Amino acid sequence: MVLPPQALALTRTRLVHRDIIWAPWRMRYVGTPDEERPPGCVFCELPAQEDDPAAYILHRGRLAYVMMNLHPYNNGHLMIVPYSHVASLPAVEADAAAEMIELTRLSQQVVQEAMRPHGFNIGMNQGRAAGAGIDQHLHMHLVPRWVGDTNFMPVLGDTRVMPQHLDETFDLLRKGFPG
Ligand SMILES: [Zn+2]
Predict the structure, then answer these.
(1) How far is Cα 75 from Cα 62, in angstroms, rounded to an integer?
(2) Is residue 143 very low, low, confident or very high in pLDDT (cuts 50, 70, 90)?
(3) Rounded CA gap, 77 and 72, in Å?
(4) 147 CA distance to ligand 1 centroid (A)?
(5) How many CB atoms neighbour CB 160 within 10 A?
(6) Chain Cα centroid distance, residue 117
(7) CA torsion angle for 139, 131, 114, 49 (degrees, to 10)?
(8) 78 Cα distance to chain centroid
C-alpha cells in the first residue's frame, strides 16, 4: 500500500511522539522478563513489578488496580485497569468490570478529598479510532477538572505542564486509599 506523503508524515510524527512518551516507562521497567504477559503491554507489565510506587500504582484490588497516568490530561488523572489483558468492556469478566466501577468510585472520592476538583471526566477510549493510546488493554480514565482549566480535552498524548509534580500527587493520593 502506498500512503500519501501527508499520511506518512502523520504516522511518523505519532510514532516518534509515542516513543518519547514511553521512553521513561521503558527505562524504568527494562529487565523484568515474564513469559506469561503479552509483550509490550504496559498495563500487564506494571502490576507484575514488585514496587508499586515506582509503577505509580496507587491501589490494588482483587481483579483491577488504580494507577496514575504519567502523561496526564490534568493533575490527578488516574486510570483504573483490570489485570486481564482484554481490549473491550464486553470482553472483561463481569466481576472485574464491577470492580472497575467500585475502584472508580473509590478513586473519585479520594481525588475529591485530596484535590477538591470542581468536576470529573470519567470514561474509556476503546480502539485507536476513539483515541485509546493503548488499545489492547481496557482502562478507565478518571480526570479531575477545575473551572478554568480548559474546555478542550486532548485525545492523543498532548501532555500539559503540571502544577504539581507526579510524585507529590502520588504521595498525596496514596494516603487516601485503603492500605
Ligand atoms: Zn495487557
Answers:
(1) 26
(2) very high
(3) 5
(4) 34
(5) 14
(6) 19
(7) 40
(8) 6
CA of 130 to the centre of ligand 1 (A): 18
Distances (CA, A) of 155 to 36, 48, 166: 31, 28, 20
Distance 47 CA to ligand 1 centre (A): 10
What's the pLDDT tens digit per position in 110-131? 999 999 999 999 999 999 888 8
* CA of residue 69 to ligand 1 center, whole Å: 15
Report d(CA 23, CA 51) in Å as an integer: 19
Q: Which of 71, 77, 137, 139 is catalytic?
A: 139
For the chain, which residues make up each domain, given as ranges?
A: 5-174
Q: Return left, alpha or beta for 20; rule: phi > 0 is left, psi -120 to 50 is alpha, else beta.
A: alpha
- DSSP assignment string, 62-109: SSEEEEE-SS-SSTT-EEEEESS--SSTTTS-HHHHHHHHHHHHHHHH
**Active site (annotated) includes residue 139:** yes
Could you tell me the fold of the domain covering 5-174?
A: HIT family, subunit A (3.30.428)
Specify the pTM.
Answer: 0.74
Cα separation of 62 and 154, whole Å? 31
